[in-house]
Amino acid sequence: MTTYVTTSVEKVDDRLILPFDTINHADLAHVGGKGANLGELTQAGFNVPTGFCVSTHAFARFMAGVAEDIYADLNDIASDNLAQLRTVGNHVRSALAEYPLPDDVEEAVRQAWTISGKEHAYAVRSSATAEDLPGASFAGQQDTYLNIRGIDALLSSVKNCFISLFTDRAILYRIQNGFDHQAVALSVVVQRMVQPDVSGILFTADPVTGNRHIISIDASFGLGEALVSGIVSADLYQVDKRTDEIVKRQIASKEIAIRSLAEGGVEQVDLSIEEQTQAALTDAQVRALAKLGTQIEAHYGTPQDIEWALVNDVLYITQSRPITSLYPLPSPTPEDDALHVYVSLSHAQVMTDIMSPLSISLLRTVLPVGHAGGQLESAYIHSAGGRFYGDLSLVLRHPITRRILPRAMENMDTVMASILQEFVKRPDFQSRGERLQLSGVLPHILPTMRKVWVFCCLPSLRGFQTTNVR
To answer: Would you give the DSSP letter of residue 328?
Structure first.
Protein backbone atom coordinates (compact mmCIF):
# COMPACT_ATOMS: atom_id res chain seq x y z
CA MET A 1 0.00 0.00 0.00
CA THR A 2 1.26 3.46 -0.91
CA THR A 3 2.53 5.77 1.85
CA TYR A 4 1.28 9.25 0.99
CA VAL A 5 3.88 11.99 1.18
CA THR A 6 2.78 15.61 1.65
CA THR A 7 4.42 18.44 -0.20
CA SER A 8 4.11 22.20 0.04
CA VAL A 9 2.18 23.84 -2.77
CA GLU A 10 1.37 27.37 -3.76
CA LYS A 11 -2.07 28.78 -3.07
CA VAL A 12 -4.30 27.84 -5.98
CA ASP A 13 -7.20 30.27 -5.47
CA ASP A 14 -8.30 33.10 -3.22
CA ARG A 15 -12.00 32.09 -3.27
CA LEU A 16 -11.83 29.74 -0.30
CA ILE A 17 -15.05 31.03 1.35
CA LEU A 18 -18.25 31.89 -0.54
CA PRO A 19 -21.26 33.28 1.40
CA PHE A 20 -24.72 32.09 0.34
CA ASP A 21 -25.73 35.53 -0.92
CA THR A 22 -22.88 35.56 -3.44
CA ILE A 23 -23.54 32.22 -5.16
CA ASN A 24 -26.22 30.54 -7.28
CA HIS A 25 -26.72 27.45 -9.46
CA ALA A 26 -23.89 28.54 -11.77
CA ASP A 27 -21.37 28.01 -8.94
CA LEU A 28 -21.84 24.23 -8.79
CA ALA A 29 -18.16 23.56 -9.51
CA HIS A 30 -17.12 25.76 -6.58
CA VAL A 31 -19.69 24.87 -3.88
CA GLY A 32 -21.25 21.53 -4.93
CA GLY A 33 -24.92 20.77 -5.45
CA LYS A 34 -26.11 21.49 -1.90
CA GLY A 35 -24.24 24.79 -1.68
CA ALA A 36 -25.35 25.93 -5.13
CA ASN A 37 -29.00 25.24 -4.27
CA LEU A 38 -28.78 27.12 -0.96
CA GLY A 39 -27.21 30.09 -2.72
CA GLU A 40 -29.85 29.96 -5.45
CA LEU A 41 -32.66 29.89 -2.87
CA THR A 42 -31.08 32.75 -0.92
CA GLN A 43 -30.72 34.95 -3.98
CA ALA A 44 -34.31 34.14 -5.01
CA GLY A 45 -35.56 35.58 -1.71
CA PHE A 46 -36.58 32.41 0.11
CA ASN A 47 -36.10 32.24 3.88
CA VAL A 48 -32.82 30.31 4.16
CA PRO A 49 -30.73 30.39 7.37
CA THR A 50 -27.58 32.36 6.65
CA GLY A 51 -24.27 30.66 6.01
CA PHE A 52 -21.24 30.19 3.79
CA CYS A 53 -19.47 27.51 1.79
CA VAL A 54 -15.91 26.33 2.23
CA SER A 55 -15.30 25.98 -1.49
CA THR A 56 -13.88 23.19 -3.63
CA HIS A 57 -10.79 25.39 -3.95
CA ALA A 58 -10.22 24.81 -0.22
CA PHE A 59 -10.73 21.07 -0.79
CA ALA A 60 -8.11 21.17 -3.56
CA ARG A 61 -5.70 22.92 -1.16
CA PHE A 62 -6.31 20.18 1.43
CA MET A 63 -5.76 17.40 -1.12
CA ALA A 64 -2.91 18.98 -3.06
CA GLY A 65 -0.02 17.19 -1.39
CA VAL A 66 -1.51 13.69 -1.44
CA ALA A 67 -4.04 13.64 -4.26
CA GLU A 68 -1.90 11.94 -6.91
CA ASP A 69 -1.14 8.86 -4.80
CA ILE A 70 -4.66 8.64 -3.35
CA TYR A 71 -6.38 8.72 -6.73
CA ALA A 72 -3.93 6.21 -8.16
CA ASP A 73 -4.88 3.75 -5.41
CA LEU A 74 -8.61 4.42 -5.86
CA ASN A 75 -8.40 3.86 -9.60
CA ASP A 76 -6.91 0.40 -9.00
CA ILE A 77 -10.00 -0.83 -7.08
CA ALA A 78 -12.09 -3.44 -8.90
CA SER A 79 -15.83 -2.89 -8.63
CA ASP A 80 -16.41 -6.48 -7.47
CA ASN A 81 -13.60 -6.57 -4.89
CA LEU A 82 -15.16 -5.28 -1.68
CA ALA A 83 -12.25 -6.43 0.47
CA GLN A 84 -9.85 -4.33 -1.61
CA LEU A 85 -12.26 -1.39 -1.46
CA ARG A 86 -12.41 -1.54 2.36
CA THR A 87 -8.63 -1.81 2.68
CA VAL A 88 -7.90 1.09 0.34
CA GLY A 89 -10.71 3.19 1.78
CA ASN A 90 -9.46 2.75 5.35
CA HIS A 91 -5.92 3.62 4.31
CA VAL A 92 -7.03 6.74 2.43
CA ARG A 93 -9.16 8.01 5.32
CA SER A 94 -6.43 7.29 7.89
CA ALA A 95 -3.84 9.13 5.82
CA LEU A 96 -6.08 12.17 5.34
CA ALA A 97 -6.94 12.24 9.05
CA GLU A 98 -3.24 12.81 9.76
CA TYR A 99 -3.01 15.58 7.18
CA PRO A 100 -3.82 19.07 8.58
CA LEU A 101 -5.98 21.69 6.96
CA PRO A 102 -3.78 24.27 5.22
CA ASP A 103 -3.18 27.42 7.28
CA ASP A 104 -4.91 29.68 4.75
CA VAL A 105 -8.00 27.46 4.75
CA GLU A 106 -8.15 27.50 8.55
CA GLU A 107 -7.80 31.27 8.63
CA ALA A 108 -10.47 31.75 5.95
CA VAL A 109 -12.94 29.57 7.92
CA ARG A 110 -12.09 31.40 11.14
CA GLN A 111 -12.78 34.81 9.58
CA ALA A 112 -16.06 33.66 8.02
CA TRP A 113 -17.17 32.17 11.35
CA THR A 114 -16.34 35.42 13.15
CA ILE A 115 -18.33 37.48 10.66
CA SER A 116 -21.30 35.07 10.74
CA GLY A 117 -21.36 35.06 14.55
CA LYS A 118 -19.23 33.17 17.06
CA GLU A 119 -22.18 32.82 19.42
CA HIS A 120 -24.27 30.72 17.00
CA ALA A 121 -24.42 26.97 16.49
CA TYR A 122 -23.91 25.68 12.95
CA ALA A 123 -24.86 22.74 10.78
CA VAL A 124 -21.87 21.53 8.78
CA ARG A 125 -22.76 19.54 5.66
CA SER A 126 -20.79 18.00 2.82
CA SER A 127 -21.66 19.24 -0.67
CA ALA A 128 -20.21 17.23 -3.55
CA THR A 129 -20.04 18.61 -7.09
CA ALA A 130 -21.97 15.55 -8.29
CA GLU A 131 -24.68 15.88 -5.61
CA ASP A 132 -28.28 17.12 -5.82
CA LEU A 133 -28.30 16.96 -9.61
CA PRO A 134 -31.29 15.96 -11.77
CA GLY A 135 -29.56 12.77 -12.88
CA ALA A 136 -27.47 11.74 -9.87
CA SER A 137 -28.20 10.39 -6.39
CA PHE A 138 -25.08 11.26 -4.39
CA ALA A 139 -27.08 12.93 -1.60
CA GLY A 140 -26.44 11.50 1.87
CA GLN A 141 -23.18 9.73 1.00
CA GLN A 142 -20.95 12.22 2.82
CA ASP A 143 -20.95 13.44 6.43
CA THR A 144 -23.18 15.96 8.20
CA TYR A 145 -22.58 17.46 11.66
CA LEU A 146 -25.27 19.31 13.62
CA ASN A 147 -25.17 21.95 16.37
CA ILE A 148 -21.45 22.63 16.02
CA ARG A 149 -20.18 25.29 18.45
CA GLY A 150 -16.71 26.86 18.60
CA ILE A 151 -13.97 27.22 16.03
CA ASP A 152 -12.12 24.01 16.93
CA ALA A 153 -15.23 21.86 16.47
CA LEU A 154 -16.03 23.72 13.24
CA LEU A 155 -12.58 23.18 11.74
CA SER A 156 -12.65 19.51 12.74
CA SER A 157 -16.08 19.07 11.12
CA VAL A 158 -14.92 20.75 7.89
CA LYS A 159 -11.95 18.43 7.66
CA ASN A 160 -14.10 15.36 8.40
CA CYS A 161 -16.49 16.40 5.64
CA PHE A 162 -13.57 16.58 3.20
CA ILE A 163 -12.48 13.09 4.23
CA SER A 164 -16.01 11.72 3.92
CA LEU A 165 -15.76 11.98 0.13
CA PHE A 166 -13.79 8.74 0.52
CA THR A 167 -16.21 6.60 2.54
CA ASP A 168 -16.54 3.05 1.21
CA ARG A 169 -20.09 3.81 0.08
CA ALA A 170 -19.07 6.93 -1.84
CA ILE A 171 -16.09 5.21 -3.47
CA LEU A 172 -18.19 2.23 -4.58
CA TYR A 173 -20.99 4.43 -5.93
CA ARG A 174 -18.55 6.34 -8.14
CA ILE A 175 -16.98 3.12 -9.41
CA GLN A 176 -20.33 1.47 -10.20
CA ASN A 177 -21.71 4.55 -11.96
CA GLY A 178 -18.64 5.45 -13.97
CA PHE A 179 -17.67 8.67 -12.18
CA ASP A 180 -13.99 9.57 -12.19
CA HIS A 181 -12.88 9.89 -8.54
CA GLN A 182 -10.75 12.90 -9.34
CA ALA A 183 -13.58 14.63 -11.21
CA VAL A 184 -15.75 14.81 -8.06
CA ALA A 185 -14.77 17.52 -5.58
CA LEU A 186 -16.22 18.52 -2.23
CA SER A 187 -17.34 21.77 -0.69
CA VAL A 188 -18.58 22.18 2.89
CA VAL A 189 -21.77 24.07 3.73
CA VAL A 190 -21.65 25.91 7.07
CA GLN A 191 -25.17 27.05 7.90
CA ARG A 192 -26.49 28.75 11.02
CA MET A 193 -28.61 26.27 12.97
CA VAL A 194 -32.24 26.95 13.66
CA GLN A 195 -33.86 25.12 16.55
CA PRO A 196 -37.14 23.89 15.01
CA ASP A 197 -40.33 23.01 16.79
CA VAL A 198 -41.18 20.87 13.77
CA SER A 199 -39.17 19.91 10.70
CA GLY A 200 -39.45 17.60 7.76
CA ILE A 201 -39.39 16.98 4.03
CA LEU A 202 -41.72 18.31 1.35
CA PHE A 203 -42.09 16.74 -2.09
CA THR A 204 -43.76 18.92 -4.71
CA ALA A 205 -44.87 15.73 -6.49
CA ASP A 206 -46.00 12.55 -4.79
CA PRO A 207 -42.86 10.35 -4.85
CA VAL A 208 -44.93 7.17 -4.42
CA THR A 209 -47.58 7.58 -7.14
CA GLY A 210 -45.76 10.14 -9.30
CA ASN A 211 -48.81 12.45 -9.19
CA ARG A 212 -47.45 15.93 -9.92
CA HIS A 213 -50.61 17.62 -8.67
CA ILE A 214 -50.07 16.34 -5.13
CA ILE A 215 -47.69 17.90 -2.61
CA SER A 216 -46.55 15.38 0.00
CA ILE A 217 -45.26 16.59 3.39
CA ASP A 218 -43.53 14.51 6.09
CA ALA A 219 -43.30 16.21 9.49
CA SER A 220 -41.97 15.35 12.95
CA PHE A 221 -41.01 17.21 16.12
CA GLY A 222 -37.46 18.51 16.62
CA LEU A 223 -34.61 18.28 14.14
CA GLY A 224 -35.21 16.63 10.77
CA GLU A 225 -32.35 14.21 11.35
CA ALA A 226 -34.74 11.85 13.14
CA LEU A 227 -36.89 11.65 10.03
CA VAL A 228 -34.04 11.48 7.50
CA SER A 229 -32.26 8.72 9.42
CA GLY A 230 -35.49 6.71 9.67
CA ILE A 231 -35.61 6.43 13.46
CA VAL A 232 -39.03 8.06 13.74
CA SER A 233 -42.29 7.75 11.83
CA ALA A 234 -43.48 11.09 10.51
CA ASP A 235 -46.90 12.60 10.00
CA LEU A 236 -47.97 12.58 6.37
CA TYR A 237 -49.96 15.44 4.84
CA GLN A 238 -50.93 15.71 1.18
CA VAL A 239 -52.28 18.79 -0.58
CA ASP A 240 -53.81 19.13 -4.06
CA LYS A 241 -52.02 22.03 -5.73
CA ARG A 242 -55.02 22.86 -7.89
CA THR A 243 -57.52 23.32 -5.07
CA ASP A 244 -55.30 23.90 -1.99
CA GLU A 245 -57.31 21.09 -0.37
CA ILE A 246 -55.67 18.81 2.19
CA VAL A 247 -56.54 15.43 0.69
CA LYS A 248 -54.68 13.26 3.20
CA ARG A 249 -53.81 13.64 6.87
CA GLN A 250 -52.06 10.67 8.48
CA ILE A 251 -50.88 11.25 12.06
CA ALA A 252 -48.08 8.91 13.12
CA SER A 253 -47.04 7.78 16.59
CA LYS A 254 -43.90 9.86 17.11
CA GLU A 255 -42.13 8.32 20.11
CA ILE A 256 -38.83 10.26 19.96
CA ALA A 257 -37.31 13.49 18.67
CA ILE A 258 -33.76 14.77 18.14
CA ARG A 259 -32.98 18.11 19.75
CA SER A 260 -29.88 20.28 20.16
CA LEU A 261 -27.75 20.35 23.31
CA ALA A 262 -26.70 23.71 24.78
CA GLU A 263 -23.03 22.69 24.83
CA GLY A 264 -23.12 21.43 21.23
CA GLY A 265 -24.18 18.22 19.55
CA VAL A 266 -27.62 16.63 19.66
CA GLU A 267 -29.55 14.19 21.80
CA GLN A 268 -32.43 11.80 21.33
CA VAL A 269 -35.35 12.50 23.67
CA ASP A 270 -38.54 10.60 24.43
CA LEU A 271 -41.77 12.43 23.67
CA SER A 272 -44.66 12.49 26.09
CA ILE A 273 -47.72 10.33 25.44
CA GLU A 274 -49.63 13.46 24.44
CA GLU A 275 -46.95 14.61 21.98
CA GLN A 276 -46.65 11.17 20.40
CA THR A 277 -50.15 11.32 18.93
CA GLN A 278 -50.34 15.08 18.44
CA ALA A 279 -50.43 16.44 14.88
CA ALA A 280 -47.11 18.06 14.11
CA LEU A 281 -48.72 20.70 11.85
CA THR A 282 -51.95 22.66 11.80
CA ASP A 283 -53.99 22.91 8.60
CA ALA A 284 -52.82 26.49 8.13
CA GLN A 285 -49.18 25.43 8.43
CA VAL A 286 -49.71 22.58 5.97
CA ARG A 287 -51.16 24.99 3.40
CA ALA A 288 -48.38 27.52 4.01
CA LEU A 289 -45.81 24.80 3.37
CA ALA A 290 -47.62 23.67 0.23
CA LYS A 291 -47.68 27.24 -1.09
CA LEU A 292 -43.97 27.66 -0.37
CA GLY A 293 -43.19 24.36 -2.09
CA THR A 294 -45.14 25.42 -5.17
CA GLN A 295 -43.16 28.67 -5.32
CA ILE A 296 -39.82 26.85 -5.07
CA GLU A 297 -40.89 24.36 -7.76
CA ALA A 298 -41.89 27.25 -10.02
CA HIS A 299 -38.49 28.88 -9.48
CA TYR A 300 -36.59 25.74 -10.51
CA GLY A 301 -39.10 24.61 -13.12
CA THR A 302 -39.02 21.01 -11.92
CA PRO A 303 -40.44 19.00 -8.97
CA GLN A 304 -38.42 19.47 -5.80
CA ASP A 305 -37.44 17.52 -2.67
CA ILE A 306 -37.32 20.23 0.02
CA GLU A 307 -36.03 20.16 3.61
CA TRP A 308 -37.76 22.66 5.90
CA ALA A 309 -37.94 23.76 9.53
CA LEU A 310 -40.65 25.55 11.49
CA VAL A 311 -39.56 27.87 14.32
CA ASN A 312 -42.22 29.88 16.18
CA ASP A 313 -44.52 29.59 13.16
CA VAL A 314 -41.80 30.88 10.81
CA LEU A 315 -40.80 28.59 7.95
CA TYR A 316 -37.15 28.13 6.95
CA ILE A 317 -35.81 26.26 3.92
CA THR A 318 -32.66 24.30 4.65
CA GLN A 319 -32.31 22.50 1.30
CA SER A 320 -33.98 21.88 -2.04
CA ARG A 321 -33.00 19.40 -4.72
CA PRO A 322 -34.66 17.88 -7.80
CA ILE A 323 -36.75 14.74 -7.37
CA THR A 324 -34.87 12.19 -9.47
CA SER A 325 -37.26 9.23 -9.14
CA LEU A 326 -40.21 10.57 -11.17
CA TYR A 327 -40.95 9.05 -14.55
CA PRO A 328 -40.35 11.74 -17.20
CA LEU A 329 -43.30 13.60 -18.70
CA PRO A 330 -44.19 12.91 -22.34
CA SER A 331 -42.45 15.15 -24.83
CA PRO A 332 -43.50 17.40 -26.43
CA THR A 333 -45.70 18.60 -23.56
CA PRO A 334 -49.22 19.88 -24.37
CA GLU A 335 -49.71 23.62 -24.69
CA ASP A 336 -53.06 23.72 -22.86
CA ASP A 337 -53.73 23.16 -19.14
CA ALA A 338 -56.32 20.40 -19.62
CA LEU A 339 -55.83 16.84 -18.39
CA HIS A 340 -54.31 14.47 -20.93
CA VAL A 341 -54.32 10.68 -21.08
CA TYR A 342 -51.22 8.97 -22.45
CA VAL A 343 -51.13 5.24 -23.19
CA SER A 344 -47.85 3.44 -23.66
CA LEU A 345 -48.16 2.06 -27.17
CA SER A 346 -44.76 0.46 -26.67
CA HIS A 347 -46.11 -1.77 -23.91
CA ALA A 348 -49.40 -2.32 -25.73
CA GLN A 349 -47.38 -3.73 -28.62
CA VAL A 350 -45.13 -5.71 -26.24
CA MET A 351 -42.20 -3.50 -27.25
CA THR A 352 -40.88 -2.94 -23.73
CA ASP A 353 -37.26 -2.11 -24.59
CA ILE A 354 -36.13 1.49 -24.88
CA MET A 355 -36.47 2.81 -28.43
CA SER A 356 -34.11 5.14 -30.22
CA PRO A 357 -35.21 8.73 -30.92
CA LEU A 358 -35.12 7.91 -34.65
CA SER A 359 -37.58 5.03 -34.21
CA ILE A 360 -40.01 7.20 -32.26
CA SER A 361 -39.68 9.99 -34.80
CA LEU A 362 -40.46 7.51 -37.60
CA LEU A 363 -43.63 6.35 -35.83
CA ARG A 364 -44.72 9.93 -35.29
CA THR A 365 -44.14 10.62 -38.97
CA VAL A 366 -46.05 7.65 -40.45
CA LEU A 367 -49.17 8.09 -38.28
CA PRO A 368 -51.74 9.46 -40.75
CA VAL A 369 -53.32 11.98 -38.33
CA GLY A 370 -52.12 14.90 -36.23
CA HIS A 371 -50.11 16.72 -38.88
CA ALA A 372 -51.89 20.07 -38.69
CA GLY A 373 -50.15 22.97 -40.34
CA GLY A 374 -48.02 20.63 -42.43
CA GLN A 375 -45.90 19.50 -39.46
CA LEU A 376 -43.91 16.36 -40.16
CA GLU A 377 -44.51 14.50 -36.90
CA SER A 378 -47.93 13.73 -35.47
CA ALA A 379 -49.01 15.76 -32.44
CA TYR A 380 -50.71 12.68 -30.98
CA ILE A 381 -47.58 10.57 -30.49
CA HIS A 382 -45.17 11.49 -27.70
CA SER A 383 -42.06 9.99 -26.13
CA ALA A 384 -41.14 9.46 -22.48
CA GLY A 385 -38.46 7.29 -20.95
CA GLY A 386 -37.51 5.90 -24.35
CA ARG A 387 -41.05 4.64 -25.09
CA PHE A 388 -43.72 6.05 -27.35
CA TYR A 389 -47.10 7.12 -26.03
CA GLY A 390 -50.38 7.93 -27.70
CA ASP A 391 -52.30 10.98 -26.47
CA LEU A 392 -55.83 9.59 -26.40
CA SER A 393 -57.37 12.67 -24.79
CA LEU A 394 -59.22 13.89 -27.88
CA VAL A 395 -60.70 10.45 -28.55
CA LEU A 396 -61.79 9.95 -24.95
CA ARG A 397 -63.52 13.34 -24.75
CA HIS A 398 -65.82 12.55 -27.69
CA PRO A 399 -69.10 11.02 -26.42
CA ILE A 400 -69.08 8.20 -28.99
CA THR A 401 -65.43 7.19 -29.09
CA ARG A 402 -65.26 7.54 -25.30
CA ARG A 403 -67.45 4.44 -25.06
CA ILE A 404 -65.84 2.51 -27.89
CA LEU A 405 -62.10 2.87 -27.18
CA PRO A 406 -61.89 1.43 -23.62
CA ARG A 407 -63.91 -1.61 -24.72
CA ALA A 408 -61.76 -2.10 -27.79
CA MET A 409 -58.62 -1.95 -25.66
CA GLU A 410 -59.79 -4.87 -23.53
CA ASN A 411 -58.48 -7.15 -26.29
CA MET A 412 -55.09 -5.46 -26.02
CA ASP A 413 -54.61 -4.84 -22.28
CA THR A 414 -57.34 -5.29 -19.67
CA VAL A 415 -55.51 -3.17 -17.09
CA MET A 416 -55.18 -0.22 -19.46
CA ALA A 417 -58.82 -0.61 -20.47
CA SER A 418 -60.08 -0.58 -16.88
CA ILE A 419 -58.00 2.48 -16.04
CA LEU A 420 -59.34 4.34 -19.07
CA GLN A 421 -62.92 3.45 -18.14
CA GLU A 422 -62.42 4.96 -14.69
CA PHE A 423 -60.52 8.00 -15.92
CA VAL A 424 -63.06 9.12 -18.52
CA LYS A 425 -65.69 9.44 -15.79
CA ARG A 426 -63.80 12.25 -14.11
CA PRO A 427 -65.61 15.59 -14.52
CA ASP A 428 -62.32 17.52 -14.57
CA PHE A 429 -61.25 15.48 -17.59
CA GLN A 430 -64.48 15.96 -19.56
CA SER A 431 -64.93 19.66 -18.75
CA ARG A 432 -61.85 21.02 -20.53
CA GLY A 433 -59.73 20.26 -23.54
CA GLU A 434 -60.03 19.70 -27.26
CA ARG A 435 -62.39 17.01 -28.58
CA LEU A 436 -62.04 14.70 -31.53
CA GLN A 437 -63.64 15.88 -34.79
CA LEU A 438 -64.71 12.71 -36.57
CA SER A 439 -65.07 14.51 -39.88
CA GLY A 440 -61.37 15.33 -39.84
CA VAL A 441 -60.19 11.87 -38.83
CA LEU A 442 -62.34 9.38 -40.74
CA PRO A 443 -60.91 10.21 -44.22
CA HIS A 444 -57.50 9.15 -42.87
CA ILE A 445 -58.56 6.21 -40.73
CA LEU A 446 -61.07 4.45 -43.05
CA PRO A 447 -58.58 3.63 -45.85
CA THR A 448 -56.21 2.12 -43.28
CA MET A 449 -59.03 0.12 -41.67
CA ARG A 450 -60.09 -1.17 -45.09
CA LYS A 451 -56.55 -2.41 -45.81
CA VAL A 452 -56.38 -4.15 -42.43
CA TRP A 453 -59.74 -5.81 -43.15
CA VAL A 454 -58.76 -6.98 -46.64
CA PHE A 455 -55.28 -8.25 -45.87
CA CYS A 456 -55.76 -9.54 -42.33
CA CYS A 457 -59.34 -10.17 -41.36
CA LEU A 458 -60.85 -11.56 -44.60
CA PRO A 459 -58.26 -14.34 -45.14
CA SER A 460 -58.74 -15.46 -41.52
CA LEU A 461 -62.53 -15.54 -41.89
CA ARG A 462 -62.34 -17.51 -45.14
CA GLY A 463 -60.04 -20.08 -43.56
CA PHE A 464 -62.38 -20.37 -40.59
CA GLN A 465 -65.38 -20.94 -42.89
CA THR A 466 -63.55 -23.57 -44.95
CA THR A 467 -62.52 -25.43 -41.82
CA ASN A 468 -66.13 -25.49 -40.62
CA VAL A 469 -67.41 -26.88 -43.92
CA ARG A 470 -64.91 -29.70 -43.79
So the answer is: P
